[in-house]
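Recall the central idea of this unit: under ordinary conditions, the amino acid sequence of a chain determines the structure it adopts. In this exercise we apply that idea directly, starting from the sequence alone.
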Amino acid sequence: MVYVLELAGLYVFATSGALMAVHKGFDIVGIAVLALLTALGGGILRDLVIGDVPPAAFSNVYYLLVPLIAAAVTFFAHPLVQRLSFTVLVFDAAGLALFCVTGTLKALDYHLGSVQAVLLGVTTAVGGGVLRDITARETPALVRMHTDLYAIPATAGAIVIAVANQLRLPEAAFAIGAAVFVFAFRIVAMLRNWKAPHAWERKRPV
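Accordingly, the structure predicted from this sequence is:
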């Protein structure tokens, strides 16, 4: 189940990176690089932390082929996408949802505690997007001042996975449910412009 979700996450995250590259006017090399960075960055960091070396991206050829296929499809099909900017965000939301689930599940499989698994799940989800934004010369969405909720939906999904694992619930059911929840949370946050709270400041009496 984790493997299937991870391949799906690779495709949608790679598409997100490739679409941003197209939007930025990158050539075919830039499109491929941004697709690979977005798809594989968070997973490589996760695997290095838990000691699963070499990372899956270098031991399983499908982890490289899927992002490259997504980049190729985007290279030829992007004229059909009328609203590139919103499409990038939709694919990014799907990748965020799938990767926070797979990252948390893999951390739990390696016997990390629930808190550590949640942290690593969020890292898996946001790591590729951060690398994508930095490479595309954008302020990462993770820390952008006016960005809609990003890490919070991933954190909520990772917590759902950790709690369900503690309760011994069926893995396939709660993994799919958590992914759908995170995706919907992120999309609604974008549509309604939900923001994370800033540092609290005490108002002084006039």
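The first helix runs from residue 2 to 24.
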